[in-house]
Specification:
Blueprint lengths: L8 H53 L14 H8 L8 E2 L33 E4 L5 E4 L10 E5 L13 E7 L3 E4 L22 H7 L11
Antiparallel strand pairs: 1-2, 2-3, 3-4, 4-5, 5-6
Length: 221
């Protein structure tokens, strides 16, 4: 009779154990990389959607620098219906964050877990809307710079983590004309996404775009 070579049960278990250890070591890194890539893809998409929507609206309504802002908007729903609704796919306007599925109107935190002071609640001079892909967009009121100068974007709406720099990013209209990341006017070496505090913005959006639409290892993920 010929002798047949085979693995013993102990050898099989040892091999499986080694595979499990390697998988446990590499899987978290793979998941983080995937999360970063998905975040960047969503961020690029919403940047394109907003930019194209503004351009299409300007063709019908004139340059955005001439649109009403702040207290000049006497009817927020009429404003939204004219300048925004026709240029985005099935947007849902929200009088509050809760109306768009959030647990409360102060739903967002910074990277350290501190809750931001800005909120979405009923106001005649604020617009918040939810796109069909569940991207949440909020234009806060600002008495100095004007109503449509900032775009707070939550890439996955009310789903967690609702953290600025993770799934929440900020764009601004430079000279009320071009949509750019908040912090676009800083030097690259001065961009610091990790510096966040209640009531203040951050440079996360600008850093990702300056890095060629990539979340690099020095990003506080």
């Amino acid at each position: 009779m010929k002798k047949r070579n085979a693995f013993t049960l102990a050898e099989v278990l040892i091999t499986l154990g080694i595979i499990g250890v390697v998988a446990a070591m590499t899987l978290p890194a793979i998941l983080v990389k995937t999360d970063k890539q998905e975040t960047v893809a969503k961020l690029k998409k919403v940047y394109s959607v907003l930019s194209q929507g503004i351009k299409r609206s300007e063709l019908d309504n004139g340059e955005i620098s001439e649109w009403p802002t702040g207290a000049d908007i006497t009817d927020v729903n009429a404003y939204f219906d004219k300048y925004w609704r026709p240029y985005y796919k099935n947007p849902k306007i929200c009088s509050t964050a809760v109306a768009c599925g959030y647990s409360n109107n102060f739903a967002w935190t910074n990277l350290d877990g501190e809750r931001f002071s800005w909120s979405v609640n009923t106001s005649e001079t604020r617009v918040a809307f939810l796109l069909s892909d569940q991207t949440f967009i909020f234009n806060p009121r600002n008495s100095t710079f004007g109503y449509v100068n900032y775009f707070y974007v939550d890439l996955n709406g009310p789903k967690n983590p609702n953290v600025v720099g993770k799934d929440v990013f900020i764009f601004t209209l430079s000279d009320k004309k071009l949509l750019r990341p908040f912090g676009y006017d800083k030097k690259y070496e001065d961009l610091d996404c990790s510096k966040q505090s209640s009531g203040n913005e951050n440079d996360c959006t600008a850093k990702i775009m300056a890095d060629g639409w990539e979340i690099k290892d020095d990003y506080p993920w």
